[in-house]
Amino acid sequence: MKKEAVLNNVDFKELSKHCKTQDDIASLTKEFMKNMIENMLKAEIEEFVENNDTSKNGYYPKRIRSDSGELELNIPRDRNSEFEPQIVKKGQRNISGIDDKIISMYARGMSLRDIEKQIKEMYDVEMSDSLISRIIDKITPEIKEWQNRTLEPVYPIVYMDAMVFKIKDDNGFYKNKALHFAIGINLEGKKDLLGMWITDNEGAKFWLNIVTELKNRGVEDILIASVDGLKGFSEAINSVFPQTVVQRCIIHQIRYSMKYVGSKYQKEFMADLKKVYKAPTKDAAEKALLELEEKWKEKYPLVINSWKNNWEELSAYFQYSEPIRRIIYTTNTIEGFNRQIRKITKTKGGFNNDDSLKKLVYLIYKDISKKWNKSISNWAEIISQFAIIFENRLNPYLRYLMFTQNMKRSLFFCYFNFFRLFF
Predict the structure, then answer these.
(1) CB count, 10 Å around CB of 26?
(2) Spatial distance between the Cα atoms of 214 and 231, rounded to a whole number of angstroms
(3) Do 83 and 77 contact (CB within 8 A), yes or no?
(4) Hey, what's the torsion of the CAs at 308, 310, 313, 314, to 10 degrees?
C-alpha cells in the first residue's frame, strides 16, 4: 500500500481531539512508531513461518532507541529460534540517528553530561555517561585507519606545529602534553592533515619517529617544511628527507624576540627588525641584521643571538619569489587550524587521556576539512615556479598527475558519449 493511501485513511480530525499539547503529539508519534514496527515484524514472521518448517512461538520484549524516543517492542519468535527480523535486527538497540547526533555534539565540544541532558530533552531517552562514551568510541577504529592511511608521494609544502593541552596521567594528575600536527599541501594545492601525535618530550628522536612514519606511509619527498622552531626537527627531517628545505616561522621568531624587548623600545626595535625580514633579498636582509646587531646587541643580546644562530632556517624563504615567500615564511596555515580547535576545546579544563583528545580533534578536523576542497591562493603560479626550482624532483610526479587527470577526463567523455548514443 502506498504511503499516501495510508495517510488518507487516517482520521486526523479525530486524532486532533486527543492531541492538545506538544507532549500529546510526541506520545502519539511514539505509539504510531511502535505499532508500525510491530506490524512489520508480524508480517515478517508470518512470511518466515510460511516458507519454513516451523511455527510462531510468542514474543519477547526489547527496548530500542528511536527518533521518537525509547520504544518497548514485542519481537516475534519461532519454535526453532531461526527467525531473523530485518526491520529490527538481533542485537540492534538503535534505529535512529541518535548515535550520529551524539558524535556531532561531542565534536562541538559538549561534555558527556551536557550531551546526556540534550538527548533527554530531544528524544526523551535516558543515556548514561558510559553509554555515550561507548557510542563516541565507535570512531576509534576510523581514527586508527586514518592515521595509518597511505599518503601521497610528494608534498611541495608541509607545515609542522603543536598545541599544548592538559591530559590526566596514570596517577590522576593533569599534566601538559603537546599535540603535534602535520598539514601538507599536495600537488593540486589542497590542504590535508597528514597526522597528529601526542608527546610530553619533544626532541630529535621524537621527530625522527614522525618523519620516518610519514616515509613509511608513502611520502617520498617534501620540498619545503615550514616549522615553529621545533626542537630537533631539522636534524630529524634531513636524515630522512635530506633535500628538504627547512623554513623557520618568522612570525613566531618575532613574537619570541618582542617578549624580551622593553615596552619603551618595542616600536623602535620593531621598525629596525622589519628591515630584516621584509628585505627584498637575502644580502639586504643580512646587511639589515648587521645594523640591528650593532644598534641593539648590548641591550638585547639574547634576541640578536637568536636571529643569528637560526639565520639559515629563518632566511630560507629569500631564495623564492613573493607568492612562495608568503605561504612558507609563517605557519599561519596551520595556526588557522589551531585557532578553530581552540575555539571548541577552550571550554574543557583537561582530557582524561590521550585518546579522548585525539577523538575530539579528529572530529573537529573532519568538519574543518570540508572546506579544504579548493587549492590555496595563487597555486597555479606557485606550482609553476616549483616545477622550475625543483625540476628533477617534482616533474615526474607532475607528469603522472597530469596523466591521471587526463585519463579521468577521457573516461568521463567516453561514458558521456556512450550514454548519449544509446540512451
Answers:
(1) 15
(2) 18
(3) yes
(4) -60
Give the DSSP H or E segment for 78. Answer: strand 69-78
Q: What pTM was computed for the model?
A: 0.72
Query: ∠208-206-256 over CA atoms, to 5°?
Result: 105
Name, of 61-65, 123-127, 309-313, the range with top average pLDDT. Answer: 309-313
Q: Map residue 97 onto helix, strand or coil.
A: coil
CA nearest neighbour of 76 among 66, 68, 84: 84
Angstrom CA distances, 16 to 7, 12, 34, stand at 15, 6, 20
Tell which phi-psi region holds residue 189, choosing left (phi > 0), alpha (psi between -120 and 50) or beta: left
Summarised one tens digit per residue, pLDDT across range 45-59 is: 888 888 888 898 888
- pLDDT reading at 423 higher than 70: no
Q: Facing residues of 157 across strands?
A: 185, 224
Cα–Cα distance for residue pair 21/18, rounded to 1 Å:
9
